[in-house]
């Protein structure tokens, strides 16, 4: 086997840092699955988990096939709208091709994880009521016509938003506003869940929510600090600001909750931390610690307020994707124009950067909302996107996946068959297994 040496610019430490960061971002998708899964009812837990997990499969393949090329390939036509297909199938990129001090392949796999989690974020808005096959088709189409182009606009040096001077260090526009507005477009087509406002739709497992939020928080360090693409001072700033903004977001949400509702909830704590993380994402490398704290607190309060609006306006954003991700993304993106250390209002630079941030944020929001609504509408009128009313009432886990998350009936069935008295000790034990039963010696 022949080996080729890396160019002199290659840095092993930076490469290791980016690869580890990519693994952390990958962990965010299962974390999101648990976070969302705990917030739905028992009858749709598995469906919610799978709507996140399937993104790992679909988007990973499409990213390598053509997604990376569309997002980070050479610009087509010089308009900053989309990349070409020169890197289709990752062609033209070897293990020694560098971007900065790291291999292009390391950068590509890092950005792949961003592409994976973004459509998964959308799923929480339409929980309990979407056909899984239709969702899979939507994910494939959405990343192709929405995410890949927007990533090119925002992060490729030839992208029109990038050239405008909009700052988005780790995805306030490309990820969070993009996903949040897509969620709004999807739920506007599919409508509200059966029983919305008439019956309780509380989540079945707050411990699962807390676990998911913890995994998201942990993975977010890769999301933000890793976007420095080097183990350097910028990564350190992003890491610190990510932590304090998450904590401040939690505090802001809980204070709002205490004032408006009279109590502190675990769901509020988890949601506030995520709101802070969302808002600091685009700004984590361009503000100081006090700016990060301010962004976190503002995001916690504003997102909590935004979530409360769904009842007033009557739209069923099942798991508050619009209120947390779209609104939080707007908060963080716009506040760069306030707290940026070089171009923000606090630096005395005027409102020019704030205007640029607003243009970038609203352009992504409008594009994502329109295209996402159209995609869901087309899928709905062709193969159908929403499950039947009776299937939704029964539960999508049983109907779509022929499974249930929890087997509550095992003990009851055992007792009905073998009784509950001491005479069980004199009978052969029947051990319940997933694949059947096992008759063996008693363990008593």
From TrEMBL:
Keywords: Ammonia transport, Membrane, Transmembrane, Transmembrane helix, Transport. The keyword Transmembrane helix applies. It is found in: Cell membrane; Membrane. It comes from the Bacteria. Gene3D superfamilies: Ammonium transporter AmtB like domains (1.10.3430.10). The keyword Metal-binding does not apply. It holds the Pfam family Ammonium_transp. InterPro entries: Ammonium/urea_transptr, Ammonium_transpt, Ammonium_transpt_CS, NH4_transpt_AmtB-like_dom. Residues 16-406 form the Ammonium transporter AmtB-like domain. It is a multi-pass membrane protein. Belongs to the ammonia transporter channel (TC 1.A.11.2) family. This is Ammonium transporter.
């Amino acid at each position: 086997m022949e080996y080729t040496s890396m160019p002199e610019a290659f840095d092993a430490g930076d490469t290791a840092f980016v690869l580890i960061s990519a693994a952390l971002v990958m962990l965010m998708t299962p974390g999101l699955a648990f976070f969302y899964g705990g917030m739905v009812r028992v009858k749709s837990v598995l469906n919610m988990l799978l709507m996140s997990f399937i993104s790992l499969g679909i988007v990973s393949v499409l990213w390598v096939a053509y997604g990376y090329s569309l997002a980070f390939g050479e610009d087509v036509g010089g308009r900053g709208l989309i990349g070409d297909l020169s890197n289709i199938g990752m062609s033209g990129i070897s293990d020694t091709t560098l971007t900065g001090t790291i291999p292009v392949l390391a950068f590509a796999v890092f950005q792949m994880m961003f592409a994976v989690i973004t459509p998964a974020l959308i799923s929480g808005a339409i929980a309990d009521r979407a056909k899984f096959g239709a969702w899979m088709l939507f994910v494939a189409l959405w990343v192709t016509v929405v995410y890949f182009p927007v990533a090119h606009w925002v992060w490729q040096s030839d992208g029109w938003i990038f050239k405008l001077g909009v700052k988005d260090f780790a995805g306030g526009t490309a990820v969070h506003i993009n996903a949040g507005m897509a969620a709004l477009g999807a739920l506007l087509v599919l409508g509200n869940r059966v029983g919305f406002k008439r019956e309780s739709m509380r989540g079945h497992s707050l411990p699962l929510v807390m676990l998911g939020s913890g995994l998201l928080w942990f993975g977010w360090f890769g999301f933000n600090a890793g976007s420095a693409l080097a183990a350097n001072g910028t990564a350190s700033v992003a890491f610190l600001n990510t932590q304090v903004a998450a904590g401040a977001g939690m505090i802001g949400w809980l204070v709002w909750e205490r004032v408006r509702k009279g109590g502190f909830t675990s769901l509020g704590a988890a949601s506030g931390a995520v709101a802070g993380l969302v808002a600091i994402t685009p700004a984590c490398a361009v503000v100081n610690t006090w700016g990060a704290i301010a962004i976190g607190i503002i995001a916690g309060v504003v997102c909590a307020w935004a979530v409360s609006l769904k009842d007033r306006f009557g739209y069923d954003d099942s798991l508050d994707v619009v209120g947390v991700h779209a609104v939080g993304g707007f908060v963080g993106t716009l506040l760069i124009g306030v707290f940026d250390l070089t171009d923000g209002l606090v630096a005395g630079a005027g409102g020019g950067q704030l205007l640029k941030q607003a243009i970038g944020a609203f352009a992504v929001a409008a594009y994502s909302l329109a295209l996402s609504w159209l995609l869901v509408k087309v899928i709905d009128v062709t193969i159908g996107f929403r499950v039947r009313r009776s299937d939704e009432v029964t539960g999508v886990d049983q109907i779509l996946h022929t499974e249930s998350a929890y087997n509550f009936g095992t003990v009851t069935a055992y007792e009905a068959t073998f009784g509950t008295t001491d005479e069980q000790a004199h009978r052969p034990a029947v051990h319940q297994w997933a694949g059947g039963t096992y008759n063996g010696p008693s363990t008593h």
